[in-house]
Specification:
about 220 residues, mainly alpha, 8 helices, globular
């Protein structure tokens, strides 16, 4: 993977200022901002297809909005285990808190048990979040390549992409983290206003990295 290209490709487009400005404004508007995610998905698709101009125009706005919504749904479905773990943790804490009673010994025992539950579930949530950061780009890449919503849930293909190309998808995770950090720092320089546009730029970085990873990983495993 070309680590640096994911960060610089936006600026290779002669109209990048206009496109990023539009993207930043779109990102501000609730519901409409799904189009920004759809725009990033189009970047992913173009990178997979080897397009020399991966930064698309802001046309077919409705199509971008719908695809962005579908990407959000994909992320939500893959994140469901985290929501389940949080609910179980909160439920356990509430039960222990209610059962502790008013005695000092019962309260101390419940406090210790709550601490153990919080640590255990916290570790599970962290580990699954890490796994999610590796697997989700493969699922989104499969969706972008096939242009089929169900392709994101072909778990055999998705897991094959990750298992046989773990280093590539770890690189995607690192790029996403680095992009978020750069966007936060640079955006904060302009009294926070710049965050509107750097956040959209970070979304483009993620889209490019996801496309690179899928193109390289799918070639290695012969996924068509």
């Amino acid at each position: 993977m070309d680590f640096g290209k994911a960060f610089s490709f936006t600026f290779d487009d002669p109209d990048w200022v206009k496109k990023v400005l539009i993207g930043g404004v779109v990102t501000l508007v609730p519901i409409v901002n799904f189009a920004s995610t759809g725009y990033s998905l189009e970047v992913t698709r173009r990178i997979i297809n080897g397009d020399a101009r991966p930064l698309p125009e802001w046309d077919d706005f409705g199509g971008k909005l719908v695809k962005g919504l579908l990407v959000t749904v994909i992320g939500f479905v893959y994140a469901l285990p985290i929501l389940l773990l949080v609910c179980l943790m909160q439920g356990g804490i509430m039960l222990l808190g209610g059962a502790a009673g008013s005695s000092r010994s019962g309260s101390d025992a419940a406090g210790g048990a709550i601490g153990i539950i919080s640590v255990c579930f916290g570790c599970l949530i962290f580990l699954y979040s890490l796994l999610l950061g590796i697997v989700l780009p493969a699922a989104i890449g499969n969706y972008a390549a096939k242009d089929q919503f169900g392709a994101a849930f072909r778990f055999g293909d998705v897991l094959s992409l990750v298992q046989k190309n773990l280093g590539i998808y770890l690189m995607v995770l690192l790029i996403e983290i680095a992009g978020g950090l750069v966007a936060s720092v640079v955006g904060s320089i302009a009294c926070g206003i710049g965050l509107i546009f750097t956040a959209f730029w970070a979304l483009l970085v993620n889209g490019h990295a996801t496309g690179q990873a899928y193109r390289e990983a799918s070639t290695k495993i012969g996924l068509v």
